Amino acid sequence: GKGEYDHFMLKEITEQPTALAQAIEGRIDPTSGRIGLSAFEPGSFEAIDSVQFVACGTSYHAALYGSLALNQAGVQATALLANEYSVAAPPVDETTLVIAVTQSGETADTLNALRQATAEGARTLTVTNVVGSTAAREADDALFIRAGPEIGVAATKTFSSQAVILTLLGHRIATDLRGEPSADLESLLPALESMPSRIHELLEHSDAEAIAEQYRDSRSYFFIGRGLGYPVALEGALKFKEITYEHAEGFAAGELKHGPLALVTPETPVFAIFTGQEDEKTLKNAEEARTRGAPVIAVCPDGHPAVEAADEHLSIPETDSDLAGLFANVQLQLLSYYAADLLDRPIDKPRNLAKSVTVE
Ligand code: F6R
């Protein structure tokens, strides 16, 4: 049940420290400082040349996060919408690893893409929350995110767990291809281990409810981010529109000036996500919005230059840039939740949506 919470969504947001601790449990080898995914022997990804992720909705945003992290580690990877895969899949062969990212393991679009990839001779893997799901049974291998059941239609804790598992998996693939772990693993692993307690802290001290109240009469809500902040911007906007029924869009921060800036007015708050990847450019993009009168809410660590430059601030801890966006995402989950609550929306069951989409 929901226990002390009014909604499953808030319960599941609050469960993220536990979900993340379960996701990483036993998957980091403290002696070697390596990533030990026990299903995969060291070297099991040696024969892989490229990775294709297939997924839908929030899982697609986690997949995009994973693909960008792999690109940064020097591995060829792309994230594809599973529902577009049948019309325009890039070629695959036995050196292609196709990773189906699906919380439920039952999404028809994602299963179709997985089956197509299998038929065309790719190696397949699913990252899922549900043991015994169709995706877990049909893919060559399954990696479970162990987030526990998610009842709210809006995916929250499963996004965080997917992104963390894909970050770990990405480093394992890169390590196998390179023959040695990358240097940045040294800062990533301790940052991962402290993530559950730091998310707990963030949840205790979030200003998201006050910000939701302050901007409740806005016309539209925009979310911008760069690098790993980009999938988080997309996810922030999806969550916001899904449960508040208000218009929201996510953009790559640098794209704003290529069109969307025409929509920016004093009635469109812009949430700018800073992940430590070319933040000075994102700050310039946020300032372009502010010059048009838009209120800017910086999602960044305390003491970051964006705090001074923006109208409001949602705080995230200083951490590895591989993970900063995931802290920002938790602030944005809370923002959506409180904005929807103020509007009295049926948060756990938004109109027209189902938890598991088993039709094409
Ligand atoms: C949004 C949401 C959906 C799902 C999508 C894929 O909050 O939950 O966008 O992410 O339908 O579902 P799974 O991950 O079960 O394949």
Question: How is the main sheet built?
Answer: 5 strands, parallel
N- and C-termini, Cα separation: 31 Å
Residue ranges: pLDDT <50 for 5 or more in a row?
Answer: none
- Please state the structural category: alpha/beta
Average residue-wise pLDDT: 96
Protein name: Glutamine--fructose-6-phosphate aminotransferase [isomerizing]
EC number: 2.6.1.16
Keywords: Aminotransferase, Cytoplasm, Glutamine amidotransferase, Repeat, Transferase
Catalytic activity: D-fructose 6-phosphate + L-glutamine = D-glucosamine 6-phosphate + L-glutamate
Layout of secondary structure:
Layout lengths: L7 H7 L1 H9 L3 E2 L4 E2 L14 E6 L1 H16 L3 E6 L3 H4 L7 E7 L5 H12 L3 E6 L5 H5 L2 E4 L12 H22 L6 H9 L1 H11 L2 H7 L6 E5 L3 H16 L3 E5 L17 E4 L5 H13 L4 E5 L4 H5 L2 E4 L8 H19 L18
Parallel strand pairs: 3-4, 3-5, 5-6, 6-7, 8-9, 8-10, 10-11, 11-12
Antiparallel strand pairs: 1-2
Helix pairs in contact: 2-7, 2-9, 3-7, 3-11, 10-14, 11-14
Quick tags:
14 helices; 43% helix; five-stranded parallel beta sheet; binds fructose -6-phosphate; alpha/beta
Structure report:
The structure is a single chain. This protein has 360 residues and is an alpha/beta fold. It has 14 helices and twelve strands. It has a five-stranded parallel beta sheet with strand order 4-3-5-6-7, with helices on both faces. The chain has a five-stranded parallel beta sheet with strand order 9-8-10-11-12, with helices on both faces. The longest helix has 22 residues, at 157-178. The chain is globular and about 50 Å long. The model has no long low-confidence stretch (mean pLDDT 96). Bound molecules: fructose -6-phosphate. Residues 56-59, 102-104, 107, 110, 154-155, 242, 356-357 line the site of fructose -6-phosphate (F6R).
